[in-house]
Structures are given as structure tokens and as C-alpha cells.
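Notes on consecutive records. When two proteins share a document, each keeps its own sequence and its own C-alpha cell line. Never mix them. Below: protein one.
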Amino acid sequence: MTAVIEVRELTRTFGPRVALDRLTLDVEAGEVLALLGPNGAGKTTTVRLLNGILQPDSGEARVLGRDPATDGDELRRHTGVLTENAGLDDRLTARENLEFTARIRGWSRPKARDRVDELLEQFGMAAHADQQTQGFSTGERKRVALARSLIHDPQVLFLDEPTASLDPAATKSVEDLIRAVAARGIKVVMATHDLGEARRLAGEIVLMHRGRIIETNDAAAFFTTPKTPEAARFVAGELLV
């Protein structure tokens, strides 16, 4: 099977801190992949590098055959990203937030409106379409942001802590939407520190710590028979040092 993402010796520092240390990884099409690890593991840096938002210090990556470092604009035509804070413009309505994204991609107004209406309906936000997002709950904001990340029907969707700060009901709602997205054949790469979220959603786990990969494993095996002592400790709820 052809890899959707190929990473070789990818390294990124911020001053004296090594955020990503010679990361090497192949990601194939199919199930949800969880980049799992504690805060500071390098998960968000990985997502940003793979989308061309950050430049690596060394190493290389290919996403859908494209180099994010040199072809980021073209790559982002085929990928979607949901950041932890959603990043909506609170002055705009849900509809306006989505239509703005479609319009800056060069879509005509009628095409943008049709796609936005479709997504707002799919994500259960049609009744709130013309309300300012400033008044939305965190769960509602996540729904709108997730819809926005899918407006151009991407082949790969990157999620950064998708259910952070959500209550249990909102968490279940967003996770159900993520499953539905993956079922459509979109490769989902999810950065999370939440063991429960990874267990519920992921088919494959990449455990990261201090910018390095500790273990890559099928999700079922990762939680029942981890291959490394570090992974076993993390599954048991112990801190990685």
C-alpha cells in the first residue's frame, strides 16, 4: 500500500529546545492514526511541519507525494486542519466563517453557499448558521471548525487535540463526527494526549515523547500488549520521564 505520509529524519528546534528529533514515520491510507503523547512530545510540531506551516531544520517529509517545506500551498489544497482552539472569527456567523474559507479558495458565491449549507446540515449546525460564533459553546465551535476544515473535501485531515476542553456529551458528538469523516475514506491524523480518545478512535498509535517516537503499534495491541516499557507505563497512567 502506498504511504500517504512519509517522514525521514525530520528535526525541528526552537532555540535550545529540540521539539522534533529525527522523526521517521510512514503513514498508510485507512484507519485513524493517533499521534499520542504527553504535552511537549512534539505532536503539534509534527502536524505543523506536515502542513508546511513550519519549516524543518533538517530531514524531509512527503504528504500525498508533496514536500510540505517547498510545496505547502499546493499541499494545503488537499489537506484539512483542525487546531485545538478552533480559530474561528467571532465577529462572523457560522455560515460566514465557512463561506469566507470557501471564497478565499476561489469558489464562486453560489458554490460556496451550497457547500456551506451541506456541511452545516451534516454537522448539526444548520439551526445556528446565522448566529455569531462568539456565543457558541466550545462543542459548537469545534463542530463549525471541523466543518470548515472539510469544506474542500481534503484527502488527509489533521486534528490537534480535537476534544480538548469539551464536556462528555460534546466529546461524544465530535468523536462521532470524526468517525464519520474517517468512514468516508479521509485519512485522519490526530494529535492527542488523551488515552481514552486514542483508544476510542484510532486504529494505529504512534507514541511520542520529547520529539521522538517511542512505539508504533496497532491500537488494540498497543493497549493490551505494548512493545516497550515506556508505552506500558504510559498506558498504565504513569508519567514519561
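Protein two starts on the next line and is unrelated to protein one.
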Amino acid sequence: MTNATGSGRDVLVVTGIGGMGQAITRRLGSGMQIVLADFNEESLTNSAAQLTIDGFDVHPLVTDVSSPTSVKDLAEFAAGLGPVRSMVHTAGVSSATSNSAAILAVDLLGVAYILDEFERVIIPGGAGVVIASMGGYMRQPIPADHEALLATTPVDELGHLPFATADQFPHAGQAYSYAKRANQLRVRAASVGWGKRGARINSISPGIISTAQGIEELDSPNGVAMRAMINASASQRLGTGQDIAAAAEFLLGPHASFITGEDLLVDGGVIAALKSGHLDLGLASSGHA
């Protein structure tokens, strides 16, 4: 579903058609060729159709970010349309609906594939954003030597690191926070290669966002702790897709031209409450916070 094909206009790539992906696409996509990627073909088709009705130039492509071949095809497809100016990776799975193996395949390896393939096609002056999570700030510290390996191990070896396999994470939430911390580290390391192309890459770590996936998490056994986090935060509210879209717009735009390899925490103050002692996760999980 497109209004134009191969017009040479700048290309925006957005992976994931959930609430954050939709908000980012609508905020940033006017006047650009939009490559919209998702694993669910039906949802992707419906989203692309609605965006086309609303005047956006959308090129949907079914993509499995856990597959290096599929991610390579996505990058090449985008580059074939025109200059790839912006890339935003929102695709991911949650601990409420996925097991540790799936989380590591999509949220850990998928990000590594995206970073590698889009480093090859992003244009000078371009920029990318990876959606990580505040969960990356909430786990126990990872040993420095493990962090170094998570950041720099070639992607075809990353899934075989003995401390980063599914059997190391009996609970999906542990795998999720681990993968999201790895995303932050991976983006930092990738900024060097992106910089050699004259491009920038950063990550955003959202807090609890009011998307379909976020509401699903609130309705899961994790919901008690999540509500305690919201109540302890300075903002005392759920985030919105527009909050994340605004952050992405800043990081992709000219006002952030001196920012690369960084993680922007957009959580309404949850981590601040945690780190300052105003939030006890143990009590939050038990419902007594």
C-alpha cells in the first residue's frame, strides 16, 4: 500500500506496529517514505491501510526481527526506496506473553541484527533509535566483563554466550530486563560504527506506557508492582505513545546532533524513585508499597 514507489524521498523505517510504533510513525512520517515492519501480517496490513487513508506513504513489509535474513531483507528493501534517513526499532515481546527463549531471540538478538544491518544502509546525517526499557535499570548489576561481551560480541556468537542463554533465566522477567540492559550496551558500542558513516544511534528506555502491550502487563501478575511504581513516581501516571514519539523525534532530529550512543530514560520518574529509596521493589511486588 503506497502512494509512491521509489520516489527518492527520505525513508523512515519503523519496526513494530504497536502503540509506540504507531505514534512514532504518525509524528515523524509526514512527507517521508515509511517502511513499516511487523511479524503479524494481518495487523501490519490493517495498520498500513489506515495510515495510507490518512495520507502517509507506507510500504509494509512482514519482518521477523529474530531472523538475520529477514532483517537484512528489510534493510535492503528500505535502501532500495531511497535514502534511509531515520530508523526506529520498537518491535519486541514482553514477559507477560513470552518465555525466556523468545525474549532473548527477539529483544536481544533482534536488536543486534537491526543495529548491524541498518549501520550498512543509514545515510550520513541519519539517525536511529532503539526502544529498550526502564527494566534495563532494574536488574542486579551485570559483571563488567559480561557487559563488555554483550556490547561487542559478533551477533552470530551473541546467542551462544554461556551467561546469555535461556536456561540462565528461569523467569521471563529476568530475561526481559537482561535483554533490555544488553540493548543499552549494544547501542552504545554500535554508535562507533554508525559514527563512521556520519550517523547517530541512541536508545530510549520507556517506563510503563499505555499501549495494548502495556495494559496487558498491568493485567498480568506483574500489575501490582507496576501500579506501585506509577504511584511512587513523580508523574504518577502512565506514559503515552506520544511521550515516546516526542523523545524519538528529539533524538532523530538536529537538536540532538551531539548525542549518540546514549540511553534516554522516559519513565515518569520511576527509576528516580527507586534509586533514591522512595520505592522498594520487594514491597511493591508484594502489594505493600
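For the record: The mean pLDDT is 93.
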